[in-house]
Amino acid sequence: MVIGSGPGGYIAAIRAAQLGRTVACVEQWKNPAGKPKLGGTCLNVGCIPSKALLASSEEYENTLHHLRDHGIGVENVTLDLSKMVGRKEAIVEKITGGVEFLFRKNKITWLKGHGKLTGKSGRGIGVEVSGDDETKAYWATDVIIATGSKARHLDDVPVDNVIVSDNEGALSFDSIPKKLAVIGAGVIGLELGSVWRRLGSDVTLLEALPTFLGATDETVAKEAARQFTKQGLKIHLGVTLGNVTTSATGVSIAFSDKDGADQTLDADRLIVSVGRIPNTDNLGLDSVGLFVDERGCIPVGEHCCTNDPHIYAVGDVVRGPMLAHKAEDEGVMVAEIIDGQKPHIDYNCIPSVIYTEPEIAWVGKTEQHLKAEGRAIKVGQFPMLANGRALGIGQTEGFVKIIADAKTDELLGVHIISVNASDLIAEAVVALEFKAAAEDIGMISHPHPSLSEVVREAALAVNKRALNI
């Protein structure tokens, strides 16, 4: 029994079914029309719809500002927001329908409703599923909890998804706000802020932390701040929030800036983007001897097993970054462990991506992290501006940075800010998994002209051998 059908849950269910298990998956999600849907937050109101809107907004901005660079003149450009949002919803419908097909193909039973653990007996682990019309009890030999996460809200800032929205409401605005405020300049805040800026909003982001994108390499964060500011995003760091007052037509946010000066930001709409919290409400954890830690996560061991050997938890409800692909890897790992195999995950080799423009992607450790460890390192960096393919497509912002051990040349971290960084990082993930050296990437032929050549040049630069700069 898998509770939750987001990336961690549905992938775990499919892998378990492939391995010959009889599998049921519990999911309570319904779309705005009240139709039950698989896929969880990621597919319905997270990763997939946000990337669809990011793509649409990029097309709009390119048409307005960049096609003329290619000798293409476009007059009387119009924006149909309802059609854009409709395209996003159609993509969600297609991909969630694809998961339904995969469930049928793999003979996985979809139990529609809320899943709750009820205890243990000689029959196994009890799971109660509450649907619209009835509640049924089931027993499973093994249970995987994959209930994901939800947007964190602020106590004094009620979200109505009209004037004040979380990430879900921010994907379905019915009009383009003239002025948009965003509380939080993290991954989701930057992505959603970028969408609406491209479509015409004056966007201001208020971030409580004193540093920008603290999880990224400092060199990348500095370049990202420069690029986003150049694009028009207004980013305030070290902010202390005061009163947030809403009306039928807008919102007023009082805050103190990093220097302690009191300020007021008036906007048409506000997006609250201050992180996510695990979905562990009403799961009946205590009935099977489980609990959550101070962060709301279910404690698990290295292989995602709880203190009960037949109950596992994966994805956003456990430690580690809240990433869909991390959840998928854990889902596969747990299904294979239940089958008696011995898989493992190297969490240092799980990449992170921010889908702004330019994109930001990284894997391994940052330069500041390695220096704090006292590790002797060497660094190579190569700009997109020196790459023929980047020049050809008019996307020359950013660079690739590679960090290796000073003595052994082993790759320790790869950090990219550029167009298509989410794709370029995959080569680095493979290299780190196989404990490659920077020299290994530098010796491998890369297609010309391609953006991937910048990865090779950065690897060569680690040993002061870059060829095109």
TrEMBL record:
Residue span, Pyridine nucleotide-disulphide oxidoreductase dimerisation domain: 350-459
Per the UniProt entry, the disulfide pairs are C42-C47
Concerning its family, UniProt says: Belongs to the class-I pyridine nucleotide-disulfide oxidoreductase family.
Q: What is this protein called?
A: Dihydrolipoyl dehydrogenase
Q: Which GO terms describe its cellular component?
A: cytoplasm
One Pfam family cited in the UniProt record for this chain: Pyr_redox_dim
Asked whether the UniProt record includes Oxidoreductase among its keywords, one would answer yes
Co-factor binding comment: Binds 1 FAD per subunit.
Q: Which residues form the FAD/NAD(P)-binding domain?
A: 1-331
Q: EC annotation?
A: 1.8.1.4
Q: Which residues bind FAD?
A: K51, G115, T147, G148, S149, D316, M322, L323, A324, H325
UniProt-annotated location(s): Cytoplasm
Coiled-coil spans in chain: none
User: What's the source species for this entry?
Assistant: Paraburkholderia phytofirmans OLGA172
Keyword Oxidoreductase attributed? yes
Where does this protein chiefly localize? cytoplasm
| One function term, GO molecular function aspect | dihydrolipoyl dehydrogenase (NADH) activity
Alphabetized, the UniProt keywords read: Cytoplasm, Disulfide bond, FAD, Flavoprotein, NAD, Nucleotide-binding, Oxidoreductase, Redox-active center
The protein's matches in SUPFAM superfamilies, at most eight in alphabetical order, are given as: FAD/NAD(P)-binding domain, FAD/NAD-linked reductases, dimerisation (C-terminal) domain
Task: For this entry, list what GO says about its biological process.
Answer: 2-oxoglutarate metabolic process
Known cofactor(s): FAD
